[in-house]
């Protein structure tokens, strides 16, 4: 029994020893494991640290690069801006110069076309139409207007007379007579274009009736030339017995004095003129511009120099 209990004690101690060794080795193992983990962790941290360092320096580098790049970009943009501005300025200057040149060219061109228009108009306008006639200077006997228009019956005092007038003057005369009608006046054409032969025959008739001296006074050379031109008319109104006598006393005459210039007509021989007997019925077409100038300044056509009159030739049919 005693031996048996001794064995039991021995077994007991053996078990304790075994347990001790198991615990001790576990402890050692744990320490080793802990150390390893610690070492591995530290290594990982170091690596991370290194990585962080690399990244940080990369960022720094990038930042530096970025700063210098931005500065360069800014510089470059500024330079580009300056370049563009100066290029734009140059362009503007060029455009300005071109515009100036164009302006000069346009002006020259306008002047040239103006001159051409003037020359063209002048070439188409018979200078005789604004010629002054006198007892020593009158129209060539072979002269005839380029084109004649028939005056419509409405405006003729003697309807069967078939009076004619220069075709270019007719619209002006028609407008004037229309205007007088709308002012409740009756102004008619008594006499208009007369050929050299017709005028000669008329003059002979007057000469026979009144004797040469008197005939020269009221029918002669100056007025004769103007009727042969085709731009001149003798006007009459109702209430004076169908003759030209007393026309200066009529409202028609007064109306013509105030309005005829608006249609291009002027009184060739006004009262108290130095050139010819007063003919209140005898109106000559000289164009609106010249007629208005004469009216506004109370000057007679024959008071002007021929050179001054000729300046209005270009505006005759305006
Ligand atoms: Zn006349």
What does this structure look like?
The chain has 318 residues and is an alpha+beta fold. The protein folds into two domains: 1-124; 126-315, Muramoyl-pentapeptide Carboxypeptidase, domain 2, CATH 3.30.1380.10. The protein is built from eight helices and six strands; from the N terminus they run H-E-E-H-E-H-H-H-E-H-E-E-H-H. A four-stranded antiparallel sheet has the order 3-4-6-5. A two-stranded antiparallel sheet has the order 1-2. Helix 3 (196-210) packs across helix 4 (212-219). The longest helix has 123 residues, at 2-124. Bound molecules: zinc ion (ZN). Residues 223, 227, 234, 279, 282 line the site of zinc ion.
How do the strands and helices of this protein lay out in sequence?
Layout: H1 2-124, E1 148-150, E2 164-166, H2 170-182, E3 187-191, H3 196-210, H4 212-219, H5 221-229, E4 232-237, H6 251-259, E5 265-267, E6 282-285, H7 288-297, H8 306-310
Antiparallel strand pairs: 1-2, 3-4, 4-6, 5-6
Helix pairs in contact: 3-4
Distance between the ends: 167 Å
Choose one word for the global shape.
rod-shaped
Bound compounds, each kind once, are:
zinc ion
Beta-strand content:
5-15%
Number of separate domains: 2
């Amino acid at each position: 029994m005693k031996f048996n209990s001794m064995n039991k004690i021995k077994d007991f101690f053996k078990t304790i020893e075994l347990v001790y060794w198991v615990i001790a080795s576990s402890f050692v193992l744990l320490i080793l494991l802990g150390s390893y983990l610690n070492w591995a962790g530290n290594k990982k941290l170091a690596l991370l640290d290194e990585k962080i360092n690399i990244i940080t320096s990369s960022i720094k580098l990038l930042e530096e690069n970025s700063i210098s790049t931005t500065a360069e970009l800014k510089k470059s943009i500024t330079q580009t801006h300056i370049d563009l501005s100066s290029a734009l300025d140059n362009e503007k200057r060029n455009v300005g110069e071109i515009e100036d040149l164009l302006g000069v060219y346009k002006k020259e061109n306008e002047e040239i076309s103006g001159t051409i228009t003037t020359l063209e108009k002048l070439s188409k306008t018979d200078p005789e139409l604004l010629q002054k006639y006198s007892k020593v200077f009158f129209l060539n006997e072979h002269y005839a207007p380029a084109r004649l228009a028939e005056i419509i019956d409405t405006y003729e005092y003697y309807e069967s007379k078939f009076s004619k007038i220069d075709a270019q003057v007719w619209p002006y005369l028609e407008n004037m007579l229309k205007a007088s009608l709308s002012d409740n006046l009756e102004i008619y054409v008594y006499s208009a274009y007369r050929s050299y032969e017709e005028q000669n025959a008329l003059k002979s008739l007057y000469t026979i009736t009144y004797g040469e001296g008197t005939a020269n006074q009221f029918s002669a050379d100056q007025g004769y030339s103007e009727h042969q031109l085709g731009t001149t008319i003798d006007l009459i109104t109702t209430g004076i017995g169908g003759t030209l006598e007393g026309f200066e006393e009529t409202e028609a005459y007064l109306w013509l004095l105030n309005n005829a210039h608006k249609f291009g007509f002027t009184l060739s021989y006004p009262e108290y003129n130095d050139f010819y007997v007063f003919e209140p019925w005898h109106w000559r077409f000289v164009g609106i511009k010249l007629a208005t100038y004469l009216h506004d300044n109370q000057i007679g056509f024959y008071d002007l120099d021929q050179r001054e009159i000729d300046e209005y030739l270009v505006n005759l049919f305006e």
